[in-house]
Specification:
The chain has 111 residues and is mainly beta. It contains no helices and 11 strands.
Length: 111
């Protein structure tokens, strides 16, 4: 059974940093493109970082320069380094691979 397990979400203040992790169980990452998505109340789920099998990354303008996705295929892990967090970054963050989604990890940015 394939599982994607996110961790690292927390409640932080504006300007703080967080690092999210996603661990894959029952699946091998190395041939897959993957992504981090965010969903806030009343809003659609949106891509905040994509990473190709070769490590090429892409980001929407809203997080460009602040978020960095990376992967460790040897450990079947995906990461999202989030810097200079803003209140609008609050939401549930999900790891995505193929047809699989994790259960999400909550990020709250508030003063």
């Amino acid at each position: 059974q394939v599982q994607l397990v996110e961790s690292g979400g927390d409640s932080v203040q504006p300007g703080d940093s967080l690092r999210l992790s996603c661990e894959g169980i029952g699946i091998t990452f190395k041939t897959y493109g993957m992504g981090w998505y965010r969903q806030s109340p009343g809003r659609e789920r949106e891509l905040v970082a994509g990473i190709s099998p070769t490590g090429f990354t892409n980001y929407p303008d809203s997080v460009q320069g602040r978020f960095v996705a990376s992967r460790n295929d040897a450990e079947n892990k995906l990461y999202l380094q989030m810097n200079t967090l803003k209140p609008n970054d609050s939401g549930m963050y999900y790891c995505h691979l193929g047809k699989y989604w994790g259960q999400g990890t909550q990020v709250t940015v508030s003063s």
